[in-house]
Amino acid sequence: MNTPLIEFKDVTKRFGSRTILDHVNLQIYEGQVTTIIGLSGAGKSVLLKHIIGLIRPDEGTILFRGKPLSEMTRSEMASSFAQMSYMFQDNALFDSMDIYENVALPLRETTNLSKDEIDHRVMERIKQTELGDAIYKYPSELSGGMQKRAALARALVTDPQIILFDEPTSGQDPVRKNAILSMIAQHQRKFGFTAILVSHEIPDVYFISSRILALYGRSIVFQGTPEELEDFDHPFKDEVIRSLERLQEELTGLHSKRQFKVMYHSQMHRRTLKETYVVAVFTLVGLDKIIASLGHDAAQEAIRCMGLYIDKHFGAIGGFSTRNNTNEFVTVLPYSDQPEAADILMDFIKDFREHGIREIWTEASKQAISMECVEFTILAGLAEGQPISEIDSVIESAKNQQIEIGQFRCAAEE
Amino acid sequence: MTDTPDSQNPSKGEDKLQFGLLLTRPFAVIGAAVITWVNHLGASAIFLILAMLKIFRHKQLSKTVQQLYYIGARSTPIILLIGLFTGMVLGLQSYHALVKFGAQGALGTLVALSLVREMGPVLTAIMITARAGSAITAEIGSQRITEQIDALDTMRIDSLRYLIAPRVTACVISIPLLTALFDLIGIIGGYISGVLLLGANAGTYYYRVQDSVDMKDVTDGFIKAVVFAVIVSTVCCYQGYFAHMRTDSHGAKAVGLSTTSAVVVSCVLILVADYVVTSLLI
After folding, report:
1. Chain A neighbours among B 138-167 (CB < 8 Å)?
2. CATH of segment(s) A6-244
3. At a CB cut-off of 8 Å and minimum separation 6, what does A38 contact?
4. Alpha carbon A233 to chain centroid, angstroms
5. CATH numeric code, A257-413
6. Model confidence pLDDT, tens digit, residues A355-367
7. CATH 3.40.50.300 residue ranges in chain A?
8. Which residues of B touch A109 (CB under 8 A)?
């Protein structure tokens, strides 16, 4: 792998007699979304503040693009930190300034841009973070969610290469949490910055993270992809992941991925080799278009409704479902074979076309920031598996066989 | 090996130790307090120097004007009010004292010199500490505990330049001007009580004011006002900026205590500095 963008080597930090970080070693790579997970008070925010230079380690070295910060000249350090932006857990918005001034502040104070250019950039970020109505309001006049978005707009306005997010979704409702994570993921894809998140939101953060770092017992005990974390055998998993991971996903009310896998394995354990099951994969295509036209909240509401609709239909006949990806649902029909599942799916499609897709639109449009024309498609695919089959390969097979089961264009259903 | 008397009687040895501690303890407490004070003094001096180095940086004018408006312009009514009544009380008390010696003609001299040399600079600085200094500490302290100052640092905005330098500049400009205003309105106050209410001679009053106040008195008053401005701005900004470092409290309580400390320390230092500067200038 390339030289890490940020690397910690045996970093130790103490506050008085309390050791917060003890010989922490970690690597963060450029262009990725890296999430640091751990329990409250584990030292995640302290770790993040080391990266941006607000706190210095008592022992150990922090390297930026391979060079120790302690060996950098003042100008080198300034130019390293200039590439970073930080979104505070409590937002740290200036309460005596309105939202426009808050977002404009870093541009006004650190650049020589013209007033018009600053105005253009600020308005662009305000629009992207759906704060158009709150532009001249003070932070105290805004809801927690709007304050988070204002802090996000301020973090993004200087077009930084690295953004550090300290608990960006804390205190938000499930739709808003996913909307903020989706916003971070979308901006990360669009602008290509390196995102470093501190979060409790398991499993929601898995959908947007390239790498996960697990902070446990004052040091990093895991570094790897969310998939690798599934196979990680460590007390951290029992004590932290399972306590943070809800049995039901907050957004959709479906089973968490872990519980889905537990249910799958317990079902398959009881089956004979000849018995089959069917996996259905549903995908909402055009989520980005919904975000662009109606906003992040509306998009997450659409996802939530789709999950509920799938659960309502397939849960009644013994199926169990989970959200596999931001816009993808997986349902297992444990007692069905392919022809039977195809019939069930046909019933679902009929019902979905008559009612489901309109319900999704109705609920999503309630959260919309505008009533622009929008187009989205729902795909579904089936695949049959046997108890010995790997669930992931059956899911892949179902995805390959997806067909369009419904399309929504503006207010006219097809 | 011979036993000492103490080793033969341990409780007697402990008693001696306790007695020794009792004797040294007051010195230790005073020493620790002095060391803390000296540390704070040194830290505040460095803080002031670092802030002053940033006064003439780019984009400072609008922030300084804003602070001038808040610290200077908006303090004018209260300074006028306090100046007027200080002058009136001074006129009243002095008149009755001077009448006993048949020296009521010296009323103008007494009022003007008292105000220009001492009362004007001291009372103006104390009033600014109470009105603007406490607000400066509370505002900066609140920004500190809500991580707004950390946010400035993460945005590469130098917090000393952005928050402290404009306030120091505004204090140094506005306190001498407000002192001049205080002196003027105080002399008018003395005229109201001494001449208009008690019947002293108006011409004598004005003549004595004009005759007794020379340029040195005005310059000395001005120097004092500048010194007090530096003290007030440094102490108030320093207390707010380091509100999170307090060991006796945290959060909002730390801001409250910092504000109290700022006012008390500023007032004490103003009076101490007044003596020192007076003895140097006299």
Report:
1. 139, 143, 146-148, 150-151, 153-157, 162
2. 3.40.50.300
3. A44, A214, A215, A216, A240
4. 24
5. 3.30.70.270
6. 777 777 777 777 7
7. 6-244
8. 59, 155, 157, 162
